[in-house]
Design a protein that fits this description.
Elements (H helix, E strand, L loop, with lengths): L5 E8 L2 H28 L5 E6 L2 E6 L2 H17 L10 E8 L2 E3 L2 E3 L1 H12 L5 E4 H7 L8 E8 L8 E7 L14
Parallel strand pairs: 4-7
Antiparallel strand pairs: 1-3, 1-4, 2-3, 5-6, 7-9, 8-9
Helix pairs in contact: 1-2
Amino acid sequence: MPAGTVTLLFSDIEGSTQLLRRLGSAGYARVLGGQRRLLRTIFQPLGGQEVDVVGDGCFNVFRRASSAVMAAVAAQQALAAYPWPEGVQVRIRMGVHTGEPARFEAGYVGLDVHVAARICAAARGGQILLSRTMCERVEAELPTGLVLIDVGPHRLKGLEDPVYLSELQVPALPRAFEGGTVA
């Protein structure tokens, strides 16, 4: 696992409890397995390393911020096109932040880890939210068609200061943030 400045990408399934109730354990296990396989297939070739998987959430780290952005975009596009069982709609929220967490054992610890996790928790399904730090690293490198939409400062659970967030708008995917505040 890389040390120093890294990009942290958290993802999880929006409405996972309702999805479990609807599909039952076996059906939900198929959804969870499909989501994990899909993310691994996309993230690993782009340099993503899986740090942790808990419930329906995944934590990956990337050496390069631009690789994390491309992974998030490719994942959201693939997830939107995936043939989910029983015709359910599975929407994944993603939070991306660049920082310098400390390495420990097989993972990372530090405020940057919490910031990235809280950004993910603030997102809606299908949405990719980025911290200001992240935006500053990738804005000049964004491929044509990708747009950063400033959604302003938000108070995130457990953090003293507001965190400035931007939504990464992906072509051919619905815009998750439509005014108001981030969830």
